[in-house]
Design the sequence.
């Protein structure tokens, strides 16, 4: 009865495989809340920008693109990853689903960092050319940046879905990238090239803003000296005969109003709307101060834009820093595993760095809430269903 013997052997093998599966309940305990937090937080970010007029700025549309990448990760990638981790890393679905999962994973991770890179490019343009940068309207340049981000992300990940993972002798019970060269290639394109570019842009921006701050303080100091010198002559005349009509010793002349500090003097938001221009408070002939006040008015537009861009950058370095802290271990471990064959990198370490990378998608909305009062207020309004 060879047929019966084969059936018995298949049944025994299936039973042994079921007994060998060690369910990882910690993956469910951590994974399910993580998915829900990512979905809730990034939906709130998208709704905040799309429904609140004050948040509809160029920078925040990039943040929406970043939130969409995190949201898609939580919907398309994380549930299957949590399911596989719950089964102890065993893949029970077919290989085509695995390839789709790997493609989406690589694409969305690449989209996240390229979105951050696009934000840094946009911020750099805003700081270098503030008068030519319209921060309250979504321009064609920004649309092209976001489109290029998603197209490049798909190009980096596309070899997997087009059959790169279908190699001879593939273990169908494990879902991973089968081509080691692609692991290195995707890591370089997704992380090791964009990160230095992004960090260099932020370094140049902060250096430019530091120079701008020093120049601004020097101009204010020169303006105060001019003002004090301009008042010395009229004060001596008032002590003699009060030759200036309607100007008594108890009155104070119109002094130059110091510009508010870009960090503390602006509203605590990365998306302040442009305020109206204030006319100079001086009139012709007031101790020869009109030239100084007018000059300050001409420079106020540039100063105010620079101050707001400096304020807008308050949150973004935190987002970039947290992203690097979460994803650097992941890429370093995976590239090391490919390039260093003798290195003993076990599945536990790989699982830990992968979870750390996915946690980043839940952190960004928390950063916006903690560092941006406008986002915080809109989040509270949406959660409380206020109008």
Sequence:
């Amino acid at each position: 009865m060879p047929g019966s013997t084969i059936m018995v052997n298949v049944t025994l093998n299936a039973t042994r495989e079921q007994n060998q599966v060690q369910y990882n309940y910690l993956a469910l305990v951590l994974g399910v809340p993580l998915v829900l937090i990512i979905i809730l937080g990034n939906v709130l970010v998208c709704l905040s920008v799309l429904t609140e007029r004050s948040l509809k700025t160029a920078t925040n549309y990039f943040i929406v693109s970043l939130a969409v990448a995190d949201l898609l990760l939580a919907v398309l990638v994380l549930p299957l990853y949590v399911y596989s981790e719950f089964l102890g890393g065993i893949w029970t679905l077919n290989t085509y689903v695995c390839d789709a999962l790997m493609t989406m994973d690589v694409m969305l991770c690449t989209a996240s960092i390229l979105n951050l890179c696009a934000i840094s490019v946009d911020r750099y343009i805003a700081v270098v050319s503030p008068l030519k940068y319209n921060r309250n309207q979504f321009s064609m340049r920004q649309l092209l940046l976001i489109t290029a981000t998603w197209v490049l992300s798909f190009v980096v990940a596309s070899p997997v879905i087009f059959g790169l993972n279908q190699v001879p002798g593939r273990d169908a019970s494990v879902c991973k990238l089968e081509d080691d060269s692609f692991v290195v290639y995707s890591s370089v394109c997704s992380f090791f090239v964009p990160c230095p570019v992004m960090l260099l842009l932020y370094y140049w921006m902060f250096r430019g803003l530091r120079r701008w701050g020093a120049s601004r303080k020097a101009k204010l100091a020169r303006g105060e000296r001019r003002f004090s010198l301009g008042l010395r002559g009229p004060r001596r005349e008032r002590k003699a005969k009060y030759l200036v009509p309607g100007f008594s010793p108890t009155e104070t002349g119109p002094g130059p109003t110091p510009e508010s500090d870009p960090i503390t003097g602006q509203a605590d938001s990365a998306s302040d709307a442009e305020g109206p221009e204030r006319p100079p408070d001086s009139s012709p002939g007031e101790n020869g101060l009109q030239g100084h006040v007018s000059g300050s008015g001409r420079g106020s537009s540039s100063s105010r834009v620079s101050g707001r861009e400096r304020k807008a950058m308050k949150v973004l370095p935190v987002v970039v820093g947290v992203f690097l802290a979460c994803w650097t271990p992941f890429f370093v471990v995976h590239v090391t595993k490919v390039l260093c064959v003798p290195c003993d990198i076990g599945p536990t370490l790989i699982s830990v760095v992968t979870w750390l990378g996915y946690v980043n998608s839940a952190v960004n909305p928390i950063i916006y809430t903690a560092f941006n009062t406008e986002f915080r207020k809109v989040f509270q309004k949406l959660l409380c269903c206020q109008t």
Remarks:
- The chain has a mean pLDDT of 76.
- The domain at 23-208+316-383 is CATH 1.20.1070.10 (Rhopdopsin 7-helix transmembrane proteins).
- The radius of gyration is 30 Å.
